[in-house]
Design a protein that fits this description.
alpha/beta, 8-stranded mixed sheet, 7-stranded parallel sheet, 17 strands, about 30% helix, globular, binds zinc ion
C-alpha cells in the first residue's frame, strides 16, 4: 500500500506498473505458498528493495519548500521542484520526498531558473594582453555558478576569423553554457587597431559563420567604434538579417553624425539590443534627471534595452531617473570582464540587487535575468522551469541589512536587500553549493570516508 501511494504521488504510469506488479505478486503467492512462507522475511526484504529502487528512479533530486519564481510560467509561490535525468520533472505544491533519491530542503530560499547573462566577456586564454579576445576576459566557470548564472553570452569577443579558436578554447571546454555574439569585426574585440578597421567589418562571412553555428552564435555585436560613420551598425544589422539573429550595439563614441534617436528609431530592427542603456555616455539623458525621449520611441518600435553594466556603463544619475520614469531594462546583464568584476559591477547578483535597491519587485528582477534575456537571444528553451526544460536552476537567498551598491563612477546607493547564491544546478547536477546543503555532515560519514573516493 505504501508503494501504491508513493507511485501515485508522482507519475500515473509508474502507479499502473506498481499495481500490475502487486497483482502478479498475488498470483505468485498462491502458487508458491510453501516456498513463500519459508522465505517470507527474505521476500519482504527484496520486495521493499525493489520498491525503493523504483521510487529512486522517479526523481534524482527534489528541491523542497522553496519559493519558486518562474516568470515565464507565472509562478511566484511555494513549490517543490523535482528533477530527473537533467530536466525539470515536476513543479508541484507538494512532492513526496520518498519519490526522490535526494531531497534538499530549501525553505526560506528562492528557486529560480539558472540565470542568463547575455553580456559577458569570456574569450580568454589566447595570451593577448589588453584584449577582450585575451587577458581582459575571464573563464566563465570561475565566475558563473557561484552567482547562479548557468548561461552566458560572450558579447563580441570573437569575430568570424577567430570564433573557432574561441569555440575550442572556451565554449566546448566550459561547464557553463557559453553562447556567442559574433563581432562584426572579423578579428573580434582585439583592441583599437582591429576594432576601428572598417575593411574588416564584413557582413557576408560573419553571417555565414553564424548560420553554420546556429544555436551557439545567437547574435551579432558591434562595439567600441570611435568614428562618425554608420557602417559598423549597418553591417552588423545586415549580418544579423542574413543570419536571422539579433544585433547588440555598444554605440562607441558619441557623434552628432549618428545620434541615439536615429539608431533606435531607424537603424535597429525590432528585437535588436541596445546595451549599456544606463551609461549616460551617448545621450541617454536629454538633460540631467530627464531621459532622452528616443529611448521610449525605440522601445515602442520593439528595440530591446539591456543593462550591460561593465566598468563604465552604469551611473546612478542615469538609472535612478530612468527607473522613476518607468524605463526599466528589458534584460539585466553584467558586461563581465576583469575590470568590471572588481569594481562596481562585481557579479550578476550584485547587479540584480541594484534593481531591488531601485524598488523593482524581486519577480521583475528575476524575469530580467532569466526568461527575458533567453528570449532576446531566441533561446526559448532556457530561462524557465517548465516540466521538460533543462534543469539549470539557481537557489538564492535574499539577505536583509544595510548594503552599499557602487556605480561605474564610484558613487554609492544604499539598499536593504542583497541576493546571494546558495546553490546552482546545471543540467540537474550540483555545480555550486555555498553552505553544503546537498552534502552530509562529516560526523555522519564512515570513519574512513574519502579514503578511496575522488574528492567531490
Ligand atoms: Zn562588453
Amino acid at each position: 500500500m505504501t508503494i501504491h501511494t508513493r507511485a501515485r504521488a508522482g507519475d500515473g504510469s509508474i502507479g499502473t506498473r506498481a499495481r500490475t506488479r502487486l497483482s502478479r505478486a498475488g498470483v505468485a503467492v498462491a502458487v508458491l505458498a510453501p516456498f513463500f512462507i519459508f522465505h517470507f522475511p527474505f521476500f519482504i526484504f527484496h520486495f521493499s528493495l525493489g520498491a525503493q529502487a523504483q521510487a529512486e528512479r522517479q526523481y534524482d533530486l527534489l528541491l523542497r519548500g522553496g519559493h519558486v519564481i518562474d516568470p515565464r510560467n507565472g509562478v511566484d509561490t511555494i513549490r517543490d521542484v523535482a528533477i530527473r535525468k537533467g530536466v525539470i520533472a515536476a513543479v508541484e505544491p507538494r512532492i513526496d520526498p520518498t519519490t526522490a533519491a535526494q531531497t534538499v530542503e530549501v525553505t526560506g530560499l528562492y528557486v529560480t531558473p539558472g540565470l542568463v547573462d547575455i553580456h559577458t566577456h569570456v574569450y580568454t586564454g589566447t595570451g593577448e594582453p589588453n584584449s577582450y579576445a585575451g587577458d581582459n576576459s575571464v573563464y566563465p566557470d570561475g565566475f558563473t555558478f557561484r552567482t547562479g548564472v548557468t548561461t552566458v553570452v560572450d558579447a563580441g569577443g570573437s569575430g568570424w576569423r577567430n570564433f573557432d579558436d574561441f569555440k575550442s578554447r572556451v565554449i566546448s571546454r566550459s561547464r557553463t553554457r557559453v553562447l556567442a555574439m559574433l563581432n562584426i569585426v572579423g578579428h573580434g574585440m582585439r583592441g583599437g587597431a582591429f576594432e576601428q578597421d572598417l575593411t574588416d567589418m564584413e557582413p557576408q562571412p560573419t553571417a555565414e559563420l553564424a548560420r553554420r553555428n546556429r544555436g551557439t552564435i545567437v547574435g551579432i555585436k558591434t562595439a567600441h567604434y570611435a568614428g562618425p560613420e554608420w557602417a559598423p551598425v549597418e553591417r552588423a544589422v545586415q549580418a544579423g538579417t542574413e543570419a536571422d539573429i539579433p544585433v547588440m550595439v555598444d554605440f562607441g563614441k558619441n557623434w552628432p553624425e549618428r545620434p541615439l534617436a536615429e539608431l533606435v528609431t531607424k537603424k535597429l530592427r525590432p528585437g535588436d539590443i541596445y546595451t549599456h542603456v544606463y551609461s549616460g555616455l551617448r545621450g541617454e539623458l536629454a538633460s540631467p534627471g530627464h531621459l532622452n525621449p528616443a529611448l521610449f520611441a525605440g522601445r515602442a518600435r520593439g528595440v530591446i534595452f539591456d543593462v550591460g553594466h561593465g566598468g563604465g556603463s552604469f551611473l546612478w544619475r542615469v538609472a535612478v531617473p530612468a527607473i522613476q520614469a518607468r524605463f526599466l531594462p528589458d534584460s539585466i546583464s553584467t558586461d563581465l570582464h576583469i575590470g568590471s568584476m572588481n569594481a562596481g559591477m562585481k557579479d550578476m547578483l550584485n547587479v540584480m540587487s541594484k534593481f531591488l535597491a531601485l524598488h523593482l519587485p524581486l519577480d521583475e528582477v528575476v524575469r530580467r535575468a532569466t526568461w527575458n534575456p533567453a528570449r532576446e537571444v531566441k533561446q526559448e528553451s532556457l530561462g524557465h522551469l517548465s516540466v521538460g526544460a533543462v534543469a539549470d536552476v539557481a537557489v538564492l537567498r535574499l539577505e536583509h541589512g544595510a548594503f552599499g551598491f557602487v556605480d561605474s563612477f564610484g558613487a554609492r546607493l544604499q539598499g536593504t536587500e542583497r541576493l546571494v547564491c546558495e546553490l546552482t544546478l546545471r543540467e540537474g547536477k550540483v555545480v555550486y553549493d555555498l553552505n553544503g546543503m546537498t552534502t552530509r555532515d562529516w560526523t555522519t560519514l564512515p570513519a574512513d570516508y574519502g579514503a578511496a573516493d575522488v574528492p567531490r
